[in-house]
Specification:
This protein is mainly α. It has helices spanning 16-23, 41-62, 70-88, 93-108, 128-142, 155-171, 177-183, 220-229; strands spanning 7-8, 112-116, 123-127, 194-199, 208-213. The longest helix has 22 residues, at 41-62.
Length: 230
């Protein structure tokens, strides 16, 4: 795993151990992450074992193999033991202190923000007000975004618009009933598309790169279909 020196654009004191931790980048996974989880570690281990074993059992079934085979039984026992050990492995005091101090620094300084850098896996530590200002300037310039206040919820309106459009296409035989179902997003996972920004540390002034996250937006399936259709 390669390391990337964090870009620090704010007055904050970090010791060598904390800097070393941040150099690992966002893909670094500390041992025994469950130590910082409020859930019981045994419950977490059980949940993850069931999730992984169910995937494995489904794969075994697809290949016309039996999960009652002795080799499969041994493999599942070893898998359960390995997951249990991963979740119960003790965390070193040194690592615990580093993580807790970083958490405290982030939580007690309201104007600090941590972002993944653009075109990289390292971290950027800067002022939240500065990032907010750059984002607002971008939004004002493009006029392509709308700030949603607490008393607004356009999600259902967008969903109804999508449903009406698909019903119109179905009525005019432009799509089939099966296609209509595939073009509708899962209503249990729906969320508004939203904007976030990444700092371009490789450019003067550290401008931002806008990113739209719309994985569970109502128009996601339609957008994917049109993109694939091209």
């Amino acid at each position: 795993m390669t390391s990337t020196i964090p870009i620090i654009d704010i007055n904050i004191h970090l010791n060598l151990n904390e800097l070393s931790m941040l150099k690992n980048g966002r893909k670094y996974i500390i041992p025994c992450q469950s130590y910082f989880n409020r859930q019981s570690r045994n419950d977490l281990a059980k949940t993850n074992y069931e999730r992984i074993s169910n995937i494995a059992k489904e794969c075994i079934g697809k290949h016309q193999m039996s999960i009652s085979d002795e080799r499969a039984k041994v493999a599942f026992r070893e898998l359960e033991q390995m997951i249990q050990e991963l979740y119960t492995k003790p965390l070193s005091r040194k690592l615990y202190r580093i993580v807790k101090r970083l958490q405290k620094l982030i939580r007690t300084q309201s104007d600090i923000i941590i972002r993944r850098i653009d075109k990289g896996e390292g971290f950027y530590l800067g002022r939240k007000t500065t990032m907010d200002m750059k984002t607002q300037e971008y939004m004002n310039k493009t006029e392509a975004y709308q700030v949603i206040t607490a008393d607004q919820c356009p999600l259902m309106n967008i969903l109804h618009s999508v449903e009406n459009l698909l019903d119109y296409l179905l009525k005019n035989k432009a799509i089939t009933q099966d296609r209509r179902k595939k073009l509708l997003s899962d209503v249990n996972k729906l969320e508004l598309a939203y904007l976030y920004t990444l700092p371009k540390i490789h450019k003067a002034g550290i401008p931002i790169r806008p990113i739209i996250s719309g994985l569970h937006a109502p128009v996601r399936c339609i957008s994917k279909f049109l993109n694939d259709f091209k």
